[in-house]
Amino acid sequence: MSFVSLALVDDHPIVIEGLTHVLGSQGLFDVVATGSTSRDAIGIAESLRPALMILDLSKQGSTAGTIAEIRSKHPGIGILVFTADLGVERAIDAFAAGARGYVSKSSSLEELSRAATAVANGDTYVSPTLAASVNAALRSASGVKSASGGAKSAVPAPALNAREHQIVRLLLDGKTNREIAGGLGITERTVKHYMTVLMQKLNVRNRVEAVIAAQNLGRDTAERSKSGAGDVAAWNRPSAPGRRSGFHDALSLERFS
After folding, report:
1. Residues linked to residue 102 through DSSP beta bridges, in sequence order
2. Which of 246, 212, 68 is nearest to 137 (CA)?
3. Could you tell me the sign of the dihedral formed by the alpha carbons of 7, 137, 60, 82, in that order?
């Protein structure tokens, strides 16, 4: 069994000690380095290139900047922010900088382990306590951007082909690339190709934004035309009992790339 190489960077030494013991004893992660500053994080990324870095430099106010620098040079490193700072703006900044996960330090060990595993596998994870707020903030930002765009806000919605509509519906159900591939009878590689195309058509940078854009696209399509009612109905169909649709259901979401 192969271990996931893990680096821990936090400006609270006691957190480093706790995480090293807890995660290192699970048989899933190999803690290859620890640090407490932005310089440490960047140096570890440069010299060791771990598969996963759990990071929090909120006391120094440099979490997002550090993430951006690491991801610009080493995009293969998955970064999970593990923090007591539950401000929505901080979470948005972290994701915009390139983080794949954002987890509260009040979370259980089980949730942290689940988030770390998800990010190491290329998925995206947001603590349930933050998901709704992050979603609302992204919606608000999208609305402000459209309102300030003047004539650009009237640009027609992107045209999607039948397969892209199928993938969008599954995306809104919180399906991972692997689950989408299985449901449609195509390869995961093909799904990733369609995801890349969808990101370009929807003009988004990550899966969180794609979910919001897809939801908006579904509403816009319903308002513009009665044609293709099956697709629109599928977008608006209630989730199965006990499930939440869209972003709220997709707390652990697979990345496009």
Report:
1. 81, 126
2. 212
3. negative
